[in-house]
Sequence to fold (869 residues):
Amino acid sequence: MADNFLRIDPVLGYAAGPAPADMLEGLSTDGTPLVLQHEQTLASLPSPTQDFDWSPLLAAFHGALSDAVPLLQWFFLLYFIVWNGSYILLNLVSLFDLLRYRREQAVDALVEEGARHEIPISIIVPLCKPAASCAVAAVRAMLHLEYAEFEIIIVNDGCDEDALEALVREFSLAPFPESYRDRLHTAQLKSILASTAYPNLRLIDKEYGGRADALNAGINCARYPLYCHMDVNFALQRDSLRKMARVFVDHPATVGAYSDVRIADELDKPPLARNMLVLFQVIESLRGFLPGRAWWSDGNAMLMLPGAFAVLRKESVVAAGAYRSDVEDEGMELTVRLHRQLSQASEAYRIVLVPDPVCRKAAMGTMAALRSRHERQQRGLYDSLEMNRKLLFSPGGGYVGNVAFPFVLLFELLGPLIEVSGYVAMTAFWLAGAISFQAYAAFMLLAIGLGISLSVSGLVRDEIMFHAERKFCRVLLLFAAALLENFGYRQMTSVWRLRGLRRRTLRNESK
Amino acid sequence: MFSSHAPLVAVPFWLGVAALVLTGVLLLSMLLNRLLHVIKEIWRRRVLNRWRPLLMASLYEHPESLPPLSRLDLPDFLELWNHLHDSLGEESRDSLNRLAGLARVPAAVSLMLRRKNFNGRFLAARTAGNMRLAAAWDVLRGLLGHESPGLSLVVAQALVRIDPARAVPLMMPQLLKRDDWSPPLVTEILREAGPDLTVPPLIHLIEEAPAEKSVRFVRYLVEISPAEAAPLFARQLANPASDHMLIACLKALNDSSHTATVCILCRHSNWHVRVHAAAALGRIGTHADVPHLIDMLSDGQWWVRYRAALALARLPGMAAVELLHIKDIQTDRDARDMLHQVMAELDFQAAAKAVTHG
Fold:
């Protein structure tokens, strides 16, 4: 019987009902239907439930869950409070720093011959498939910047022939026998052109190598001690270089000066749906850029500067190895690397924020573009921190390694993960009946309330600093956007950032 | 309603409510700030409309009496008065000062300097300087060491304007102490004080101060009085305190008597020094220095080669044909390429000039 049982058990399992006749054939010994034998066999076996009692395990699981839920609730609550609270605090405290910066600027008006002290700047413009008209207009605008001595180096990194031809035609560019200084390795150069109409304009035509490669080629050709890089969709204020370079004159140890890139079409009146998208981006930039940066800049610990406009000291950048092609955001990675290398070498250096909004760019027009930007930024942040992880709590790291790096790691890199987990977990707890509706509602009130306060504090700071720039109705619209963005948009950006983070970690695993 | 619940409900609830209240307060502060800005702007226009004609008229005739200047009008009035002072010529200044005296500005300025308000002090210091207000000397002297670089610089400027002979000795220790003073404004203040008063203490500072600070003072000296700096350059070139000092002197050098020393420095071990030696030779050298510059065309450093080629091209009496010949006889490819680049650069610059002038 044991043999019979063993044979049929995997097929029939514990299913009730007669066994198929073909399976029973040749197995019966006394003419008794085998179905009965089978049922008897089954009946004689101890049932699994009788054999293993799940109830204690389930009870233990329920017990652990009921213990874990309050702990998780506290964890998410505290994280949201510390995260948003620290940013609100930074926002309000940095207002004093910004007002102090503004009042010190009054001295500039008293200087009559400031131009004599200006340090020459090279402007590097990497071209990656821009429209011909856009490239020409951007370069023409740059030629009108108010600055004593600057040069423009356009780096054609695989843009189409139309844009190149338009530039050659518009600016009378001709082949130039440059003794190319190959300090930084880049993709093959095709030729170097110089303008016969504008002595401060050159163009490097090279094989495609990516943005970082184009910037490195530009640095190889740069003649001046300071350089900045800008995309053709950036619009610089005419006195922008003067404002940015001033910190290098006043503090010779400065290796980098960064400024926020504002949304250019904030003051336009596009259709409402697009208008809201623009307003959300304005609020996002007000909430995200200045508060932390102004504070960290004071302590020379500014790490995370996605998409900022920067003026950098060329020799410091070259000594640090310049731009890496294998990262998502080469500018941010370079900033963190400069901090790591210079602080570990115990060199006196400064990387500072220039709070004046000297540069503007167009807002992202579609959600897809916005999503892509957020994902890219998060990947860039991951690369920057991962590649410079030795800065974290390093002996010579100082404020930047011991405070700023952990802060950015905890609130900027892991922030989206914990935020999204918080929303999902609390909703799941409520739906599963693990927490009351009141607890869930209180959590949402806290998360959204703090989010609104943070967005509005950014707007207030900006309004106090630059109140003359916006019409009052626009300010009210921005206030409405600051409220509305916390009901979906902000959470969505966190999901995008989380996706960016996930993709980067998956790529690293596959490597 | 949530207060009676567990802390997990009450804490987030009340913090959420606090965040919303904070949002309301922030909105209110934004509205008040905007309102205040609008009121200030209306007030400013009112003050300008009343006082601008009077100030302009005072340039041509001396008014016997003026309308009373209220405390609220004072900041906007002083802004306008200082603006006119800075933008109009020397002959208008007496008229403006006379009008300020009639409007009892000196007393108000002294009061503003004693108050803690930063903007008020800044404006008052500017006014005291423009008025040459000797009565404000003691208060201004006390503010010279103020933590704000902007205010302390304006105070230094005011002191120099009131009494340069007494102000310069007060300013020099601050110059040594403060790294946050803006070099362009310091240069302007020193220039206002005049070379007779500033050059001796600056030379003393250069010789006594640590090397890293001396470089800054060399730049001030060169800006104020290049002629007075010449003996110092001679001493530094012969016996330099540091490479930074050497570079600062080479940058400013404009005297052909130092050519021999510069030629020696063309072989200095620090390539930064060699770069500036080549550039200096381009300014002060003669045709006799061509061999030194040709040697530098084969330097391992790109910048040394570039500056040497530029210097060669700019030497007096250097013709394009000769430059071409020098290029052709170079056996070193780097030297030839660099000369080729510099010759093309000069051609392109000439073409651009022709376009501009044409």
Remarks:
- Chain A touches chain B through 64 residues (CB under 8 Å).
- The CA atoms of residues 49 and 55 of chain A lie 10 Å apart.
- The two ends of chain A are 56 Å apart (CA to CA).
- The first helix of chain A runs from residue 2 to 12.
